[in-house]
Amino acid sequence: MNHAAQPTIEMDAQTARQAALAALRGLAAGVPAHTLTYADIAKAASVPWQTVKRLLGPREQFAALLEGAIAEPVDTRDRILESAARVFSQRSYLGASLDEVAADAGLTKGAVYWHFKSKNDLFFALLDSRFQVEFDQHLPEAIELQSRHASPREGTKALLAGVLERVKQDPDWPRLFLEFLGQARAPEVRERLAQAYQQSYRMSATLITQQHSLHQQAVPVDPQLQAIFWSALMDGLITAWLLNPEAINLDTLIPRIVDMLWQGLDPEKQASPQGNTV
Length: 278
Description:
By secondary structure, the protein is mainly alpha-helical. The protein folds into 2 domains: about 5-115, no CATH class; about 120-270, Tetracycline Repressor, domain 2, CATH 1.10.357. Helices cover about 70% and strands about 0% of the residues. It contains 13 helices and no strands. It has helices spanning about 5-30, 40-45, 50-55, 60-65, 75-90, 100-105, 110-115, 120-145, 150-170, 170-180, 185-215, 225-245, 250-265. α1 packs across α3. The chain starts with 5 loop residues before the first helix and ends in a 13-residue tail after the last helix. Residues about 1-10 and about 275-278 have low confidence and may be disordered.
């Protein structure tokens, strides 16, 4: 490892911690510290939420942290995950090494292996952390967003638009995921990926059910079937966009696709081509 780079890494971490603490103090002046989320602080400090979590520690200790009753937490695992996301994005999954991840985190390779048994294991930890963000942040946001729309159809458009916005903000992740799919020849990788997709389907099915409940409507098609359908559709569209972004405009395409498909999802409205009340 290039030891000359270590002061820069530590300086960056210190700067990030100071920004996160300043944001925590500012926000805690208006609301109880324990009610603040990592996303709240990350937005105010302009740093990733993973960094806030690593540098500030458990949310229930925010008040003690502000009072100086506890020292700075050190979460090496989160530190490795943050570096892995950065290195994999820069170097690609196949091109990156655990040595490079360790160097980026300011750790030894042995420290990485203490937490993760392989590069595949490290990638799945990244995948799990992204699903956790979906459950903790994006799913509640999606439910709240859909409550603003008069119909499930328009709510679906808004939901998918949110997914697309996250893809556009972080296009390296879907590229990285597509690259990793090539590892699915290994049975253990294929099984873990299948579990990840099942988790995604359950989350989406919950959202679909919630969406219709908001409008006091029965779900016209099995939510699990809908979840698989929308997941496969979005996977295909995102792949097409990544390969040919000049020809695929997802912002305009998705609303048109939702309108085109909605009649099949709501047979009772087949006689109404406009479906304005759906």
